[in-house]
Amino acid sequence: PQVVERCVAAAGYSVGEFAALVFAGALGFAEALYAVKVRAEAMQKASEAVPSGMLSVVGRREANYKFACLEARKHCESLGIENPVCTVSNYLFPDSRVIAGHLQALEFLQENARKYYFKRTKMLPVSGAFHTRLMEPAVEPLAEVLKSIEIQKPLLCVYSNVDGKKYMHSKHIQKLLVKQVVSPVLWEQTMHSVYERKQGTEFPYTYEVGPGNQLGAILKQCNLKAWKQYKHVDALEDEEAVDT
């Protein structure tokens, strides 16, 4: 309880942003859950319209992700694909990105990984190119839901995936949650915003809540000093302990 009361900031990765906003008092739990349901169904429907996916990439310092994506799009055009999509959809930490788009583009990048200075590539087990314009059909359904629910000003700072900055007011939240569906997740930039402080200032405790500690691993790559104050709280394990 003391940790919750003293919390000064929150952030959530992709759909986790809804959880961060619930925690901050900006969204009600039931309303947020319904919005997430509509969002998920709309994004799944958009995914089924075009064979697409997401590719996790760890690159060398020389890697030029924009150039690689440009050449992948040109490859798709040579295959007869009109207006192909291949772009960075998630900025994780220095030298690590997720690229999303048409499957043919991602396959091209994997086949030519060495040319683009990619050390490791891995297709993610997802059904579509999330956080790209291929998700545009999901924008309107989510926008309509967010118009119908009450959004409050957060009780503490919540950082947006879209620009890595703090939400200012309820309309700002409504606008950026919709924009997030078709915009890259700027998680690396968000980490820099959250932990920016004067030299010599102590870093706060950071808690990752939920299954897995992927965000902690990313934080370690972004800011080692901040990571030293990191703790993981597995909500599922806590529930099991209560049940037994």
TrEMBL record:
One of its GO terms (biological process) is fatty acid biosynthetic process. The chain crosses the membrane at residues 18-36. Residues 4-240 form the Malonyl-CoA:ACP transacylase (MAT) domain. PANTHER family: MALONYL-COA ACP TRANSACYLASE, ACP-BINDING (PTHR47170), MALONYL-COA:ACP TRANSACYLASE (MAT) DOMAIN-CONTAINING PROTEIN (PTHR47170:SF2). The keyword Membrane applies. This is FABD protein. It catalyses: holo-[ACP] + malonyl-CoA = malonyl-[ACP] + CoA. Pathway: Lipid metabolism; fatty acid biosynthesis. InterPro entries: Ac_transferase_dom_sf (IPR001227), Acyl_transferase_dom (IPR014043), Acyl_Trfase/lysoPLipase (IPR016035), Malonyl_transacylase_ACP-bd (IPR016036), Mitochondrial_malonyltrans (IPR052760).
